[in-house]
Specification:
Blueprint (H helix, E strand, L loop, with lengths): L14 E3 L4 E3 L6 E4 L59 H4 L2 H19 L4 H17 L7 H15 L8
Antiparallel strand pairs: 1-2, 2-3
Helix pairs in contact: 2-3, 2-4, 3-4
């Protein structure tokens, strides 16, 4: 790799201006390099948390319980016509592209999280309840039952398995 130096002051320590993307000689002000890319994080963190909670990572976390956890993006629909909602903004129809089983699981996981938040349950119980719901749903064990009732039962069982029993109410 070639080192960038000022042709008039080769021993000068160059200054990098990340906001402008330039490398500047402090002696004469000559811009010796442009289009410098800052590969650092966009913000600083002041926490001692592990990499799992690192805000420098973007995108939704993968959910191993869902089958469609690939990293795909849908840019536009195939019809060519843009549809807009009442406020004039385009409608995004990502739910149409989602598999029905994933849609049911996402709705149930949301309901389980909502119930757990109301009674202040930890994430470990929510995760176990989600896993139990997926097992029940994929096994078609309670076909014809209300999804809310199954989600509630899974949360109850997760509480019992984790040693944090709750009453039926």
């Amino acid at each position: 790799m070639a080192k960038v130096v000022c042709p008039y002051h080769p021993d000068a320590a160059l200054i990098e201006d990340y906001s402008a993307g330039d490398t500047i000689c402090p002696e004469c002000g000559l811009v010796v390099g442009d289009r410098v890319i800052d590969v650092g994080v966009e913000w600083r963190t002041f926490s001692d948390k592990t990499a799992d909670n690192d805000p420098c990572r973007v995108g939704a976390a993968e959910n191993p319980l869902l089958s469609g956890s690939d990293l795909s993006t849908v840019i536009a629909g195939g019809s060519g016509e843009a549809s807009f909602n009442n406020s004039g903004l385009p409608k995004y129809k990502s739910r149409r592209n989602m598999r029905n089983s994933d849609r049911v699981l996402i709705n149930a996981f949301g309901e389980i999280k909502s119930m757990a938040d109301r009674i202040n349950l930890p994430k470990s119980i929510v995760d176990r309840a989600n896993y139990l719901f997926k097992q029940v749903y994929e096994g078609k064990m309670l076909k014809g039952r209300s999804m809310d009732a199954i989600a509630t039962s899974c949360l109850y069982m997760a509480c019992r398995q984790e040693g944090v029993p709750r009453t039926f109410k």
